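Entry 12.
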Amino acid sequence: MDPSLDATYAGTLKQQCPNPANPATTVGMDPQSSRSFDTHYFTILNQKKGLFQSDAALLTNADSAAIVNRLQFPRNFFFEFGRSMVNMGNVEVLTGTAGEIRKNCRVINPIA
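Predicted 3D structure (tokens):
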């Protein structure tokens, strides 16, 4: 268990995900708000309730922790989300022979 994880939350996860694990079990990444598009994820990170180690890692660096703190506020989050969508919209799509659709997203397709 990640020692930085909130102990009460860790206990809840252990109840939801017993050992041996059931592959059909799902756990929300954002408890209490998993079906909403909001800033709750950033709030629970600061409560040490991130589901993944990568979530907890965001708080181990001063720069990324500052971003987590700033994005807890809806005004900041939605502003930054809007900016990121504009940036994603500016990414050029590869067409024709300039790109490929991978059969396995983790591996470049073998040369035919």
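Annotation: The radius of gyration is 19 Å. The mean pLDDT is 91.
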